[in-house]
Recover the amino acids of this structure.
C-alpha cells in the first residue's frame, strides 16, 4: 500500500529544454501495512513491562506537550502573547 505523495517536486534547468524541467527522481517505497503491523505487535513492549519502568534519577525533564492548541491561545489572549517556544 502506498501513502499519498507530499514530496516537493523541484524544477531544474536542463541543457536540452527551453523551460525548467520537473525532477521526478524521488525515492518512494510502498509498504505492506499488514507486515508493518505484525512486526509492531511482535516487538512492542507489553503493558505489564511498561508499567514496571521507572524514571531514572538522572533524567532530563522536558516540558509537557500542549494538548490543546486552542486552550493555549485562549490563555495567551493574543497570538503575540503566545509562547511559541513551547511548540
Amino acid at each position: 500500500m502506498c501513502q499519498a505523495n507530499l514530496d516537493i517536486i523541484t524544477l531544474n534547468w536542463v541543457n536540452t529544454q527551453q523551460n525548467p524541467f520537473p525532477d521526478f527522481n524521488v525515492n518512494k517505497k510502498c509498504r505492506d501495512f499488514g507486515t508493518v503491523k505484525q512486526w509492531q505487535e511482535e516487538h512492542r513492549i507489553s503493558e505489564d513491562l511498561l508499567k514496571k519502568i521507572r524514571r531514572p534519577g538522572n533524567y532530563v525533564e522536558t516540558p509537557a506537550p500542549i494538548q490543546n492548541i486552542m486552550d493555549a491561545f485562549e490563555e495567551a489572549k493574543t497570538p503575540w502573547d503566545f509562547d511559541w517556544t513551547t511548540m
